[in-house]
Task: structure prediction
Amino acid sequence: MSTTLAKKETVSRKWYILDAAGKPLGRTAAQAAVLLRGKHKPTYTPNVDCGDFVIVINAQEAVLTGNKLQQKLYRRHSGWVGGLKEVKYEKIMAERPEFAMMLAVKGMMGKNNLDRLAMKRLRIFKGAVHKHEAQKPTAWTQE
Result:
């Protein structure tokens, strides 16, 4: 039995649209991470960047299940004493839903150079309008 391994030169990239309206934030982010990494392709190779471009629309209409909207916190630290900043997801989803989606996708990607490269192919939009019609993206329907 032979195994086909993808090469960087032979990778073809498609554009996909994920609609986050009414869907849980984490499930949409997980699907975006799979598409960005290329794990949905039969020619997936772990050491080659073979993922596709992903456009996430309606990020502000993504839902957080349970009490996450009121209880989940985004934390960052400045590095200085007492520099811990905490923001509830309720505020993030109201002001910057694209940032919340980007954080979720980033958390589901690996922590290596290939995945950092793949994150550059992620485009997130607050509403249903996006500026990538010229790339002729197709809607991703598998879930």
Remarks:
- DSSP finds five helices and six strands in the chain.
- The two ends are 30 Å apart (CA to CA).
- The CA atoms of residues 29 and 105 lie 5 Å apart.
